[in-house]
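tool_call predict_complex ligand=(Z)-L-Arabinonhydroximo-1,4-lactone
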Amino acid sequence: MRVTSVSETDPTVSNPVIPGFFPDPSVCRAGDDYYLACSSFEYFPGVPLFHSRDLVHWTQIGNALDRPSQLRLPPDTASSGGIYAPTLRHHDGRFWLIVTNVSGDGNLLFTATDPAGPWSDPIRLPGVHGIDPDIAWDDDGTCWCTTAGVGQIRLDPHTGETSGTRRQLWSGAPGAKAPEAPHLYHIGDHWYLLIAEGGTERGHGVSIARGSTPTGPFEPCPANPILSHRGTDHPVQNTGHADLVQGPDGSWWMVLLGVRPGGGTPGWHVMGRETYLVPVEWVDGWPVVGELSTDMPAPPWPLGPPAVAPERRDDFDAAELAPQWISLRRRLPEDCTTKERPGSLTLRARGESLDDADVTFVGRRQQHPSCRVRTLVDVTEGQGRGGLAVRLDELHHYSVETSAGQVRVRARIGPLSTVVASRPVPPGPVVLRAETAPAPMVDARTGPDLVSLGFEEPDGTYVELASLDGRYLSTEVAGGFTGRVFGMFASAASAHFDWFDYEPLES
Ligand code: 6LW
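tool_result ok
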């Protein structure tokens, strides 16, 4: 996150305010603090949580679901399955997080006194059906749970029991794809029901309706969709899945997801759906959403300290991994530890390759269009094999891996899997490298970037083994709801990673 100050009086801030695959943002305010939660799908730990004091600078403070009793993702959990959209709220002095595990126990409710955790074990919600659950309290303390579709039911948030009948609140704009991501707000004299519709691709948009009670009836806003970039050439596309929040000065703002397609036409996005911020004005009791720009005028209040980004280089000196590190479906202490070799992350292989859903993997999201990722890995023990991956899912990944005396680059693109290049190397630890750079020219035939993979000789000289088209690691090609993750993996015996360095490059 960088504040590009044009001048002290007129700084601009860059959007997305949270770059990288952090979709389906839900935001809440508690006094002078703001907290935001995102979807996490097949990754463990799940539901990344951020903190801000100014809605602009967001620092990840943890992951709400960081133990198996909270997040059970079976080995056969599909990529882009698992944890779908959360809603995060502050009520009665507690934080409430409601979310759907589409590959496990359905809708679940968690509470915490500190959003940094620990969060409770789940309260199961067997009577809540559908994804994108929202939770809101009426003035009399009644709790309403609203889900995609848009259905609503009364909920006891302490027991998870529902009561009454599920009522259909609104079906969104005529002919639009199913309304999703409902959020209910009591603002002034009205209850507002905010939804996403059109699907999370290029047709995505945000619509709203209002009524005099939390159960409706709801009157659609005449200006719906109040936000959409469908049919435009705006650099941010797929805008939708929003949440409203009041700024420190009482003004209103919206967080939402969007993507940055690159390359030729139709454009391919590789960092997933990212979290954006946009101002909102109220006119005649309806929200009017301001211009979403990637370099937007800073909000009219003093900006807090810049976000604390993940450490560029991790030497794995700490007993626990920092919150930006994510694994696939689970993280078993016997397979992923910094205790076996102090100052090193030891990964013990479960699967035999990145094609396996159960591969031992620890990675962090790509958050910059251009970046260089390096890691020092030692597989010299026994028949070890492991390496550095650029992953979208089991069917779309590039990797540079090493085993006794050899380094090779593998590419998996859908049904195709091949070793693109290999090179003998002396036995012993080796620095593996992956870096992304904008494609040299942009026309209808070029993807957004090239992904270079290789290793470093002992004197640091980079030996590029392959330069591959980044479009095949994009969501437009692979489908799904996530974005690229750079990760370390073990695919035979064990691999020891002494450090991991993620260097943003000017693009
Ligand atoms: C999310 C829903 C959606 O739950 O995608 O396309 C799901 N719309 O709002 C995953 O992000």
